[in-house]
Design goal:
Elements: H1 4-8, E1 17-19, E2 40-42, E3 63-65, E4 86-88, E5 108-110, E6 131-133, E7 154-156, E8 177-179, E9 196-197, E10 202-210, E11 214-223, E12 226-235, H2 245-254, E13 264-270, E14 275-281, E15 288-289, H3 312-331, E16 334-335, E17 344-346, E18 352-354, E19 361-362, H4 368-391, H5 398-411, H6 422-430
Parallel strand pairs: 1-2, 2-3, 3-4, 4-5, 5-6, 6-7, 7-8, 9-13
Antiparallel strand pairs: 10-11, 11-12, 12-14, 13-14, 15-17, 16-19, 17-18
Helix pairs in contact: 3-4, 3-6, 4-5
């Protein structure tokens, strides 16, 4: 984190990256001293409402974040910033995006938790767009122009006012991660339920981790005279980049039981904190994250530590487990929406556990065409996972590698209609010798 004081004293001269968060109400004009070098600017968590009309002078600026500010209009001047690749305006009050405000160079656009009721048709000119985050707005329609964004791989449209998915979504050749829960779809879903556990049974202990939708704690459960170590996820309540936490809870409950899913023990109401939570099996400490979330450079693809490598047996076990659990979820009318290595935990034996239902969405299994295409969108994500597994596989057995590469290529086909379903993928993987 930098300071305005440093900026005014000239201590940031030549800086490539600057982050300022000091309750600013006006754009610090001293930043213009950095127009020749600045590539990354983060002005999040201030009180800004506008940008200077000559902001385009930052010719080298590639990444700009202005989340948690007070903008009600997406700054039109950004459409003149030729190098901008990634733009984030999460949690503002944006109602309008001017037609000329989106530069064709954009690759990653974050507009989560604003007040947008419409997107400009000009978004169709963003041919490089790969990642579009629109959860938590007031969108009743998506412009047909988005159909022109053929590179779009990740689309978050949860927690809006959509009444259906537009047909053109199923023609996007690279779409792999889709979240659309929390809209006004007319579906008669009967959600599964989980046992209601008493908060008095739980002794909350150490913090295990925190994500966008909630915080996970280790806890002790006292029941029928026995003590069991469990995990408790306490949901925060507000809209996340994926959608509503309530939808995540419903999806996790509806997912049911599968060897690759962390076991769900029940739900709990924390009345004092006015929050709700899920009680789950405690994941053994020998499990670790297979991958790391995408970086600003990789955009939609996971990144991996140099130390991560898997044997042929481990790769095959992970591939089989993920295909099996995906088949299981789609049989229940659930698209996970976030099928990534960073949401998979594995151990040295190659056993895998899948989690994080924040982007999961229900769909009508009785609509055969809808079910077919939504499954094939997720198959694309699975294809990318196979590609990742091949990258970190240390076994060079040609027959095994070539067969897995062939399956990967089928899953990554640009035409949704020719991709295999998860049932077929499971059968092909079972035919591969360990």
């Amino acid at each position: 984190m930098n300071t305005v004081s440093q900026l005014k004293k000239g201590e940031l001269k030549g800086a490539i990256s600057v982050k300022l968060s000091e309750n600013l109400t006006e754009f610090p004009v001293e930043l213009f001293e950095l127009v020749e070098t600045l590539e990354y600017l983060d002005l999040s968590s201030n009180r800004l409402t506008s940008l200077p009309v000559d902001f385009y002078r930052f010719k080298k600026l590639r990444i700009f974040f202005a989340s948690d500010n007070l903008f009600d209009t997406f700054p039109e001047v950004l459409g003149r910033c030729e190098s901008l690749d990634t733009v984030g305006f999460k949690a503002n009050k944006i109602e309008v995006i001017p037609e000329d405000a989106l530069h064709a160079n954009l690759r990653w656009l974050i507009l989560t938790n604003n007040k947008l009721s419409a997107l400009p048709e000009s978004i169709g000119s963003c041919k490089r767009l790969q990642k579009l985050m629109l959860a938590g707005n007031q969108l009743a329609l998506l412009p047909d122009a988005l159909n022109q964004c053929k590179q779009l791989s990740l689309l978050r449209i949860s927690a809006n006012r959509l009444t259906q998915l537009p047909d053109w979504i199923f023609t996007l050749p690279n779409l792999a991660w889709l979240a659309f829960a929390g809209n006004d779809f007319k579906n008669d879903f009967v959600y599964a339920d989980a046992e209601e556990l008493s908060v008095d049974e739980l002794i909350i202990k150490d913090l295990l981790g925190e994500g966008a939708s909630g915080t996970i704690y280790e806890a002790q459960r006292l029941s029928d005279g026995t003590s069991t170590n469990v995990a408790v996820k306490v949901f925060k309540g507000e809209v996340t980049s994926d959608g509503y936490p309530d939808d995540e809870m419903n999806a996790y409950i509806a997912a049911g039981s599968h060897p690759a899913l962390v076991g769900l023990l029940g739900r709990v109401n924390l009345l004092k904190e006015k929050k709700r939570g899920l009680v789950m099996d405690l994941i053994p400490k020998n499990f670790f994250n297979l991958g790391c979330p995408p970086s600003l450079d990789s955009c939609t693809r996971d990144v991996f530590s140099d130390e991560v490598s898997l044997s042929k047996i481990q790769v095959l076990k992970v591939a089989r487990n993920m295909a099996s659990v995906s088949k299981h979820l789609h049989a229940r009318g659930l698209i996970h929406g976030d099928l990534y290595a960073h949401n998979i935990l594995i151990n040295e034996a190659g056993e895998a556990l899948f989690g994080d239902f924040g982007a999961a969405s229900f769909y009508d299994k009785n609509n055969a065409a809808l079910a077919f295409y939504l499954e094939r969108i997720e198959v694309k994500a699975y294809g990318y996972l196979l590609d990742d597994l091949l990258t970190i596989c240390m076994d060079e057995e040609k027959s095994f590698i070539s067969k897995l590469e062939a399956l990967r290529d089928e899953c990554l086909s640009l035409a949704l209609s020719v991709r295999p379903g998860f049932d077929e993928i499971v059968k092909k993987l079972e035919a591969l010798p360990a």
